[in-house]
Specification:
It comes from Yanshouia hominis. InterPro entries: Homeodomain-like_sf, Integrase_cat-core, RNaseH-like_sf, RNaseH_sf. With 308 residues, the protein is an alpha/beta fold. Helices cover 41% and strands 9% of the residues. It has eleven helices and five strands; from the N terminus they run ααααααβββαβαβααα. It is elongated and about 105 Å long.
């Protein structure tokens, strides 16, 4: 299929043919064009009109483009860690001297084809979400069962209680040997004290409808408050329950559990309660000092300081 011929291309064709017949100087006077202009298009002319079309003027390079050393660093890091998340990859590259923004890293990785082909996803249209405006306005709480393959003693069962402030993303983690109403009430007292030491007053906690948090779906104790609800009523903390069977309403703490599984439980083992408690405290400090996108690529600890 032949390309369309524009008016400029036909004009240049007429100019070149006239210059070949009568010379460049005479064509310059007749068409009121400089000699260099005619020589430029005469060099490009190969007998076809398409050779007289304007080419792209986009530059082949940019002064701030990624250097070959940076590209090699990105390719090597991606090859060694094919399943690493974008932020974790950028964080490790930055520790090795990479100075670009995460957005620049994403663009160059997409251009280099370093992302696996994504499958087609169903379109999910979420409802408008109520954004928090200050620290402590609402804290999401949930429990994660520690994978058995991480525990050296087969009879030992461990549970990670997690609290995350929706505004600052500041997390508090605690270890318990059982998932019960007593553990939940004790965890509430600890998280209230932990956030208070950082200048954050917890006004509301949000949980799912598990029996460790509420008696809402209990046949015999529906009218009795759970230990956590009683412990929350004493300092005046509001307890909010999400819609049943809708874990995405507690999405921030659920996402943090996914990150815990990827960064912590997939590569750690625990030999006792004391050992797990020490490793969990180190992981909690690391996660609170890890850069995140919602607070503008600051860590939760850095972001919370601005408001406390």
């Amino acid at each position: 299929m032949s390309k369309s011929i524009t008016q400029d291309m036909a004009y240049r064709q007429s100019l070149i043919k006239y210059a070949e017949k009568y010379g460049v100087s005479r064509a310059s006077r007749k068409y009121n064009k400089s000699r260099s202009y005619i020589y430029f298009w005469k060099t490009r002319w190969d007998g076809t009109v398409q050779s007289l079309s304007c080419q792209s003027r986009r530059p082949h390079s940019h002064p701030n483009q990624h250097t070959e050393a940076e590209l090699k660093l990105i390719r090597d890091m991606r090859r060694r860690n094919p399943n690493l998340g974008m932020v974790e990859l950028w964080h490790r590259l930055r520790q090795r001297g990479y100075t670009r923004r995460p957005e620049s890293l994403f663009r160059i990785m997409r251009k280099q084809g370093l992302f696996p082909p994504a499958g087609k996803k169903e379109i999910y249209r979420p409802k408008p979400y109520e954004q928090m405006t200050y620290p402590g306005q609402r804290v999401q709480v949930d429990v994660k069962v520690v994978p058995l393959r991480c525990i050296a003693e087969p009879e030992l069962r461990l549970f990670q209680y997690t609290a995350i402030d929706e505004f600052t993303r500041l997390r508090f983690l605690a270890l318990y040997p059982e998932q019960s109403t007593y553990s939940s009430a004790d965890f509430l007292k600890k998280l209230f004290k932990w956030y208070s030491h950082r200048g954050i007053r917890v006004e509301c906690i949000q949980t799912d409808n598990g029996f460790e948090f509420t008696n809402r779906f209990s046949n015999s104790k529906r009218d009795l408050p759970a230990l956590l609800e009683a412990a929350a009523a004493n300092p005046g903390i509001r307890h909010k329950l999400i819609r049943p069977y809708t874990p995405r309403h507690n999405g921030k703490v659920e996402r943090s559990h996914r990150e815990d599984q990827k960064r912590f439980y997939s590569c750690h083992s625990f030999y006792s309660l004391d050992d797990f408690s020490k490793q969990l405290a180190v992981h909690n400090r690391r996660s609170n000092n890890f850069p995140m996108r919602p607070p503008g690529w600051l860590s939760p600890s850095e972001f919370s300081v601005q408001y406390v």
